[in-house]
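TICKET: design request
STATUS: open
ATTACHED STRUCTURE:
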């Protein structure tokens, strides 16, 4: 079987990028197609593949922030040559599902979410300049038409959570099967302590995006002087409380140490699936997350973590103050095992073989 994997863009070290690389390894792909790639900014694993990128990859500003290229992405994917292989697996939260294929090639879309800037624009564009928000709103009807046509070219749609499967049904009228993404961070790898930070902190991990609601957590800890919050993914925070520590980007060795020594992984983001609680669980660390979105699939209440009922200050404050001290760390690890790379790869290949067997 000759397999090719497509992913929206490799310009950051995020959960979707980790999953795309696991997909490529699981189906033994040699080639990865993407709109924009910056090998310096993403995971080293991408260098193991032949990377083919669109013309947008030649533009430095798009390699720094591909969101600036949103109005051009559909055009860029259309300009790429059709994939000629047995199977194309498109890891998509945007436009990768629009990559064309030859008549002999089957296409499976592993969907992290329908394009958030088209279908959940109020969340995604919270931190974008006014001009960008206006432009995208003007282009939304045109881009939605292209997006829906692209979705209907797939032979099968796979969602990363129940929540995303519902969004796929609403956006495209497609019934998707659900395959939870894997934990790809090696729990047995080396750990590097973060100097100056003792165990027992709350940890939040995620890029700076408006819908991540990290600022709400920062504001909450101003009223939680007896607790500490370490923030991965943000370099600095204006007017932050003295018990909040932005760490910026960290290495995998540092991330393993942070997960292992946290009191809990904390998030009030409205995630499509949300890998960080499961990654923390793999190290025996519980989570404290918003009772919404993909967290409903990834968190087993009272076993792997607890829920925050609403994304508001009183709810966060109460949840942190009442968070239990004692947890069964082995039970938490067992919960995380269902999201292993091995389980993911086995199920993905079952789906691939089913699609290849269809006339």
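STATUS: resolved
RESOLUTION: sequence designed for all positions
ATTACHED SEQUENCE:
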């Amino acid at each position: 079987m000759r397999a090719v994997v497509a992913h929206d863009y490799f310009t950051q070290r995020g959960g979707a990028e980790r999953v795309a690389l696991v997909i490529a390894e699981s189906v033994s792909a040699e080639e990865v197609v993407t709109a924009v790639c910056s090998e310096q900014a993403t995971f080293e694993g991408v260098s193991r593949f032949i990377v083919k990128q669109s013309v947008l990859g030649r533009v430095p500003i798009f390699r720094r922030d591909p969101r600036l290229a949103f109005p051009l992405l559909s055009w860029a994917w259309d300009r790429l040559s059709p994939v000629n292989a047995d199977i194309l697996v498109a890891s998509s939260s945007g436009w990768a599902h629009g990559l064309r294929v030859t008549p002999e090639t089957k296409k499976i879309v592993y969907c992290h979410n329908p394009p958030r800037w088209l279908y959940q624009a109020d969340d995604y564009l919270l931190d974008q300049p006014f001009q960008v928000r206006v432009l995208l709103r003007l282009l939304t009807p045109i881009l939605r038409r292209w997006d829906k046509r692209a979705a209907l070219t797939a032979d099968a749609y796979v969602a990363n959570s129940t929540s995303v499967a519902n969004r796929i049904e609403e956006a495209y009228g497609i019934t998707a099967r659900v395959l939870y993404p894997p934990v790809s961070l090696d729990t047995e790898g080396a750990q590097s302590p973060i100097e100056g930070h003792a165990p027992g902190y709350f940890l939040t991990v995620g890029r700076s995006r408006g819908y991540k609601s990290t600022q709400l957590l920062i504001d909450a800890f101003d009223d939680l002087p007896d607790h500490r919050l370490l923030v991965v993914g943000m370099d600095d925070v204006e007017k932050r409380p003295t018990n909040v520590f932005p760490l910026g980007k960290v290495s995998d060795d540092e991330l393993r140490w942070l997960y292992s020594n946290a009191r809990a992984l904390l998030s009030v983001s409205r995630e499509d699936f949300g890998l960080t609680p499961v990654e923390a669980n793999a190290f025996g660390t519980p989570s404290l997350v918003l009772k919404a979105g993909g967290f409903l699939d990834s968190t087993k209440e009272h076993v792997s973590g607890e829920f925050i009922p609403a994304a508001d200050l009183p709810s966060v404050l109460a949840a942190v103050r009442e968070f239990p001290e004692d947890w069964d760390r082995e039970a938490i690890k067992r919960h995380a095992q269902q999201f292993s790379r091995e389980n993911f790869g086995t199920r993905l290949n079952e789906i691939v073989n089913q699609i290849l067997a269809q006339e």
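CLOSING REMARK: The chain has two domains: 3-182+341-357, 202-337. The longest strand covers residues 3-10.
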